[in-house]
Design brief:
210 residues; alpha/beta; Metallo-beta-lactamase, Chain A; 27% strand
């Protein structure tokens, strides 16, 4: 098996979207945080790579990470996987913060699958995915591990402090989450964050998050 990961920079806010696929299995792919208002580049990548976006994984509810969900749901009937709190928040234009971005308010339908109902683990096409709640940036956040990849959303960004001042953010809860991530150091994980470049976790100073 060979997991491939493609990064797409969302627009107009430059957050990260990722496509995960294993061509040796089939042409299904996971779409992580499709946050473009008009997901033209995402659509082009799907066509170029001949991928079918069966599932959407959301690390948290903010508009710059979920704006493309409605497009994928309408065109491909993609199913959303996220935390239960995130499922509630994406349905609310205030909680997903879209109301406050040029007043372009939108809602996304409730998740099809909540990670809590999966018991925080899921086997996708032979790949084991482990989820964990990642509060701090928001109370709806999750991180997940697949292969040697750790997807952190906005919980952990390279060389940047994690924003905790938004609705439902908490520096105290972020400390708990970062300590959870600290336990993964030394295991060869590569971090795929919600913004900016990825990085090796093993030698990263996690105190930069504060």
């Amino acid at each position: 098996m060979a997991l491939k990961i493609v990064r797409i920079v969302n627009k107009p806010v430059s957050s990260n979207c990722f496509l995960l696929y294993d061509r040796e299995i089939n042409n299904d792919c996971l779409v992580v945080d499709p946050g473009s208002e008009y997901p033209d580049e995402l659509e082009q990548q799907l066509k170029d790579l001949n991928l079918y976006p069966k599932y959407i994984l959301l690390t948290h509810e903010h508009f710059d990470h979920v704006w493309g969900c409605n497009y994928l749901i309408e065109k491909y009937r993609s199913k959303i996987i996220c935390s239960a709190v995130c499922s509630e928040a994406i349905q609310d234009a205030k909680r997903n913060h879209s109301l406050f971005y040029n007043q372009k308010a939108f809602q996304v339908s409730a998740a099809d699958i909540c990670v809590e109902d999966l018991g925080f683990s899921w086997n996708w096409n032979g790949w084991d995915i482990t989820f964990f709640i990642a509060e701090g940036h928001t109370n709806a956040g999750i991180c997940f591990e697949i292969g040697n990849g750790l997807f952190t959303g906005d919980t952990l960004l390279k060389d940047l402090r994690t924003v905790t001042k938004l609705f439902c953010g908490s520096k105290e809860k972020l400390v708990v989450t970062i300590n959870r991530i600290k336990g993964l150091q030394g295991k060869g994980f590569y971090v795929y964050p919600g913004h900016g470049d990825g990085f090796d976790l093993d030698n990263y100073d996690l105190n930069k998050a504060f």
